[in-house]
Amino acid sequence: MSDAETQMPAAYPMNAGEGDYSYSKNSYFQRATTNVLKAMIDEAIIDKLDIEAYVSSCPATIRLADLGCSVGPNTFIAMQNAIHAIQKNLTSKGLLTKMPEFQVFFNDHAANDFNTLFKSLPPEKPYYAAGVPGSFHGRLFPESSLHFVHSQYALQWLSRIPDGISNRNSPAWNKGKIHCTNASEAVCNAYAGQFNKDMEAFLKSRAEEIAAGGIAVLTMPGKPDDVPYSKIPICVMYDLIGLSLMDMAKEGIISEEQVDCFNMPLYPASPAEIAQLVKMDGSFHIEKMELLNTQTRYEGGVHAQDIVMHLRAGLEGIISKHFGSKIVDELFRRLVEKTQDFSHLLESSYKEGTLMFIVLKRH
C-alpha cells in the first residue's frame, strides 16, 4: 500500500440522524446549489462524456460515484440528475437498442451516517446502489472502473490539520485563531501546502479509477486569485467562530490554550491553485472552471440563524471532539449574535465568485 493509503486521514462527519441539528435537515444551501448547477452538469455530461465508448459492449454498465456524499437527499438528487442526463444523451443519439444498467457508489468516511443515508434511498431509483467507506484522498475503486465522478462541498476539507499551526514552537503557530483567515503568511502557506498535498492525492487516485473519456464534476468553496480570505463570506464566518471561542476563553468557559491548538481543516482554493495542480498531475484536461455567484441561490436573503444552523450541522462534530459537547449550544448561540453584530463584514464581503465549479476530463 502507498503512504497515502497507510496514513489514516482524519474524519469530520456531518451531524448524523434526522434531528434539528442534523446535516439531513440543514443542508438546503447545498441543495440549492445542486439545483442551480443541474443545467451545467447536464451540459458537461452531454458535451464531454465519451458515452459511446462505454455502451459498445453488451451488457453495458455505467458507473457513477459521489465522493463525500454525507447524508440526506442531496446526493440522491445529484446522482438522479446525472443518470437522466446520460439517458437523454444516449436516447438523442439513437445509439441504443437497450439502455445500459447504472451503478452508483456513495462514498464518505467510515464514520459517516450510512444508516440514515440508505434508509432514505429513493424506492424507485434507476440504479444499483453501493456504499464505499473511505477517504477520497486515496484509492477507492478498481482501475478504469468509473465513468462519472461527482463531488460537491467536500474537497475543501483537508485530510489533516496543516503542520505546525497548532505548535507554539512553530513559525506557523496560529495563536488565538482557528483558520487562515486574517492569519500570518506562514499559516496561510501551511494551509495551502496541505491542500496541495491532498489535491495531488485526490487527482492521482481519480486518474487511476476513471476510464479514458470519463469526467469528474467538482464543486467546492473557492476564492478569486486576488481576493484575501478575509473577504470570502464563509471565511468571515470561520473568523466569527474563532472570536466567539476567544470570548468564551476570556470568561473561563474554555481555556485559551484549547483555542490556540484548535484549527478548522477547511480551505477555499483559487482557480490558479487548481489549474497548477491539474497541470502537474497531467491526467486530466480542464473542460470548464469558473467561480460562480452563490447569492443568487437564495430567494428572500439568508438570515443569521439559517447560516449558523447550516454551520452547526457541518462543524459540530469537530468542535465537540476538541472542546467537549457541553459548550456547543452556547458557542452557536454566541455565533448568531456575532453574525448579527458583524453583519457589515458579511454584507461587504466578496460574493461575485465564491463557488468553484470544475469539469475535468480523463485523457
From TrEMBL:
InterPro entries, per the entry: MeTrfase_7, MeTrfase_capping, SAM-dependent_MTases_sf
A Pfam short name: Methyltransf_7
Gene3D superfamilies named among the record's database cross-references: Methyltransferase, alpha-helical capping domain, Vaccinia Virus protein VP39
PANTHER family hit by this protein: S-ADENOSYL-L-METHIONINE:CARBOXYL METHYLTRANSFERASE FAMILY PROTEIN
Single biological process term from Gene Ontology: methylation
Record's protein name: S-adenosylmethionine-dependent methyltransferase
Alphabetical UniProt keywords: Magnesium, Metal-binding, Methyltransferase, Transferase
